[in-house]
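Raw record, unedited: VOC family protein
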Amino acid sequence: MVVPEKFSHVGLRTDDVDETVGFLDGHLGAEVVDRGTIARDDWECEVTVAVLSIADTEVFVVDPTPYEAAGVVESVQPGIAHYGFVVADADAAVADWIAADGRVLMEPFTLGDTRYAFCHGPDGARIEFVEHPSETS
């Protein structure tokens, strides 16, 4: 069984990161914590991401999602794209997920010093496992 250490974030898919950030700032007082692009050599395109803090929750506003950029999923409709959970070991979390007959969307991969993996949850909900060495060591 995968036992997350804590909830990490909600991933929000949008067609316009700037517009969505402006809306969430103006209506919910969202604070931009980080902003930029992420990419890997084996991805089809970059991902534009803004990390927002709203109340006590982080919201990752993305266009496109990492799984779209990787070519694993053709398209994701705007709205909630996935739920992220911090785990001690992303590889072990995916192995446990598979052992429990769970389906994997993207095998664990590394960006910077952080490991990520995406899995399918019930009814198609996507779940992200995030391994931050600084938080788990």
